[in-house]
Amino acid sequence: MDKMDRALRELGQMDELAAGDSPVHRLSPWVKLLVTLGYIIAVVSFDKYALSGLLPLILYPLLVSQLSGVSLILGLRKLRLVLPLVLAVGIFNPFLDRAPLLYLGSLPVSGGVVSMLTLLLKGLLSLLASFLLVATTPIDSLCAGLRKLRVPQTMVTLLLLTYRYVGVMMEELAVMSRAYHLRAPGQKGIHYKAWGSFLGQLLLRSMDRAGELYASMRLRGFHGEFYYAPSRPCGGRDLAWLLLWLGAFALLRLVDLGALLGGLLRL
Amino acid sequence: MHMADALLAPGVAVGMAAASAVAAGVSVWQLKKEDDPKRLPTMAVTAALVFAGQMINYTIPGTGSSGHICGGMLLSALLGPYAGFLSMIVVLAIQCFFFADGGLMALGANVWNMAFYGCFVGYFLLWRPILRGRLFSGMGAKAAGRAKIILASILGCVVSLQLGAFSVVLETSVSGITELPFGAFVALMQPIHLAIGLVEGVVTAAVLLFVYEARPELVRDVTVREGEKQKGSLRMTLVVLALAAAVIGGGLSLLASSNPDGLEWALFGNSEAGYSENMGLDEESFGIESEAAERAGSIQESSSFLPDYAFPDSDSPAGTTVSGLAGSAIVAAVALLLCLVFGFFRKRKKAKANG
Amino acid sequence: MITLENVSFAYEPGRPVLDGISFHIAPGEAVGLIGANGAGKSTLMKVLLGLEKAEGRVMVGGEELTKESLPRVRRKLGFVLQNSDNQMFMPTVYEDMVFGPMNYGLSREEADRRVDAVLEKLGLEALKHRHNHRISGGEKRMAAIATVLAMEPEAVLMDEPTSALDPFNRRLVINTIRELGQTRVITSHDLDMILDTCSRVILLSGGRIAADGPTEEILRDKALLEAHRMELPLRWQG
Fold first, then answer.
1. Alpha carbons B250 and B238: distance in angstroms, whole number
2. DSSP at A24
3. Which domain holds residue B292?
4. Which chains would you list as touching B if contact means 3+ CB atom pairs under 8 Å?
5. How many domains does chain B have?
6. Does A139 contact C91 at a Cβ distance shorter than 8 Å?
7. Per-residue pLDDT tens over the stretch C43-80
8. What is the distance in angstroms between the Cα of B234 and the nearest Cα belonging to chain A?
9. Considering the entire predicted model, what is its pTM?
10. Nearest-CB residue to A119 (from B6, B57, B320)
């Protein structure tokens, strides 16, 4: 199934990006996590008509992309998953909210159009921010960061182990579905007669795998404790990154930079 | 059903994250109490399997389309509610981190909508009472087990997906994101998710039946000791309750589709005239009677819980002006210029490094 | 190093998988454990590792394997699984390698030192920070061996170490095994590999020891091998 292959490729691509080296890659993972959350909160807290106030926030993804050497184009491809629901929710706004909000020359633009565009921009910006976080932070550092932010060890370890086996499972399922479709050339999906056995087979094998995996852990002295790569001590650089960006987000959130510059333009 | 960050107001996102965090905390605590070190690898492998399994297309007989599973019910039937919930969180987190499916801030809401109902409501209200109950006791033990698994899987998936879809609508509406009135949104979401839930239920049942035939001990609550079975009769009341909830839920969505503004009224106590005329999804009223539409928009605004969900100072909803947009264009241009400069320096550095 | 005295094991009563197994393996010895599918090789490995509790006596490094001694005995043994994906459960090679040493209470610095030493010895420095699901099958097998060596075991047990490897990687694994100083117990159907790595062979059949002796002797015995559903090593097949 090419869906599975595509997902595998995408997963590999994120790994490769995160394995890179740049000033952004080298930052403490928990700092990046907090800045990203701060950014998303700032973005989504804008009023639904605040298109001009929101636009300057595009500075963050652009700058981080430049500093880290991670292309935003790759992030844009991931839009296909979230965009449909955002669009489905926003598409009605132009029809339902028709009061003209502003005039471009003599052309009236309704509040609905502005709010739809704002919504789409919010979707785009928050997605780019999370993409940049993951594209500059390998999974192990991400987990170390989550630990630092006091996420329980059970959760973090589960995330780590699951992430490892997502690739393995997808490969196995990809092989199975290729085998299935080679013998059922006309079918688009799995025939209902095989609904249970297809995933069920793999499930049974996975349980054996889990047993072997656990044996492998026990044989290496596992007694319930997982050790994470030591997170580098948080330096002045990290703190500066945290404070500067959070300050910048607060400022951009409070001051409509777009309107301000526009006002200057008119003078 | 994955929500993007943009669909949630910060207050709602944080609230949902807090609710999910509490449920996750309870689950972690429960797992610690069980203290089974083999649990973690089993959960990880099963979660990874469900993650991959979500990408399988199941052809729905008699139609050209295909369905998918989300997996909450499947996970809790195999791992139990607590382990299932935590595994589902991890599945959603990986989707969010690596595939941008659902937003980072929205993770809490997504966990609630897609994992909480399937794992806790589906398990405690449907799966366990049905499996441990005396239903189908006329058949043989094996046949009764099969019938119970089918019933519990389908009911569990349908009910949890209905609840999940309803939560999506509720969260989006409370966030004041869409102009689409609550009733119409409900009418749009619930029937779609009824179909999705049915398909997921049947696939879940099929997978669990397969496991039940091969290794029955892997399916939860199938083999119950005699003493525990007695609880079944008591639990049947819960089944009835859950069924009632499902019926009411279904009824509500029917009501919503025939009288879209009914729910809006009920929830927000808004009864302005002219509103109901516009809210159906029939095209006639869409955008033609613009006056009614305008009024509807303003009603929507005043009726959402958090009209000014933003920070307290954002008091100019119509603050966008042409000059503002022009200013933003300047910002964008400066940003692009910055990028070009950066790119130039990087290239030079690279050239130097290579030369 | 490893001594078994009359070891028997059954998953279901009345159907023994291992039936009165006794042998002694000296320190530094390399022993190939061969036999047809279902002969009991994997179960024997599990018993040695204390993953299954069998009747009879299992001695490792002069200590009897009991519930109480299990943690100490396990520390002396390293096990390379047939499926490296099940062995390597951490995201990166490095983290998998420090997992064992850290569990044994070593400091991060000491664990790091061991990791670097093993990687250098095996010539795998480039793999250190690679992701386990992004490396090839051959690299994965070598990395799996490295995770075990980082624990500095006294004996290494290997289950089909050359399965599904290309000729180059197979040779690499064989050379690695030959250069190990530890006691080695290797199960495999790859008799040519056994011939290259082991000085002694134990042939299992139906849960019993059918033959135990020098590799050359047993693997040349066509009649013996064929009687137990095996064949001569490829290089000796006319």
1. 18
2. T
3. 5-354
4. A
5. 1
6. yes
7. 999 999 999 899 999 999 889 999 899 988 989 999 99
8. 31
9. 0.82
10. B6
> The CATH number of the domain where B153 resides is what?
1.10.1760.20
Largest CA-CA distance found in chain C, in angstroms, rounded = 55
Instruction: Inform me whether the C-beta atom of residue C144 falls under 8 Å from chain A C-beta atoms.
Output: no
List residues bridging with C59 in a β-sheet.
C3, C64
Contacts of C236 (CB under 8 A, 6+ apart): C219, C220
Residues of B in contact with A262 (CB under 8 A): 321-328, 330
Q: Contact, C69 vs A186, CB < 8 A?
A: no
Choose among A15, A164, A220: nearest Cβ to C99: A220
What's chain A's Rg over C-alpha atoms?
23
**Beta carbons within 8 Å of B157's beta carbon, 6+ residues apart:** B73, B118, B122, B197, B198, B200, B201, B204
Q: How many CA atoms lie within 13 A of A161 on its CB side?
A: 29
Taking 3-state DSSP, the helix, strand and coil percentages for chain C, each rounded to the nearest 5, stand at 40, 25, 30
Query: Hey, how many other C-beta atoms are within 10 angstroms of the C-beta on C219?
Result: 26
| Phi (first) and psi of residue C201, to 5 degrees | -130, 140
Rg of chain B on CA atoms, in Å: 25
Q: What is the ipTM score, two decimals? A: 0.91
- Counting every residue written for chain A, the total comes to 267
- Sequence spans of domains, chain A: 1-138+229-267, 151-228
Q: What does chain C come to in residues?
A: 238
The mean-pLDDT minimum among B152-161, B278-287, C22-31 falls in B278-287
> CB-side exposure of A202: number of CA atoms within 13 Å?
25
Q: Six-digit token pair at C96?
A: 């998998």
For residues B77-97, give the mean pLDDT. 94
Residue with tokens 């699951």: A162
Tens of pLDDT along A198-252? 888 889 988 888 888 888 888 888 877 777 666 667 788 999 999 999 999 999 8
- Closest-CA residue in chain B for A72? B339
List the single residue in B3, B178, B207 with the smallest CB-CB distance to A203: B207
Q: Using alpha carbons only, what angle is made at residue B309 by residues B305 and B311, rounded to the nearest 5 degrees?
A: 155
**Cα–Cα dist A56/A42, whole Å:** 12
Check CB contact under 8 Å for B326 and A262.
yes
Spatial contact of C51 and C80, defined as CB atoms under 8 Å apart:
no
CA distance B200 to B165: 14
A-chain residues within 8 Å CB-CB of B101? Answer: 81-82
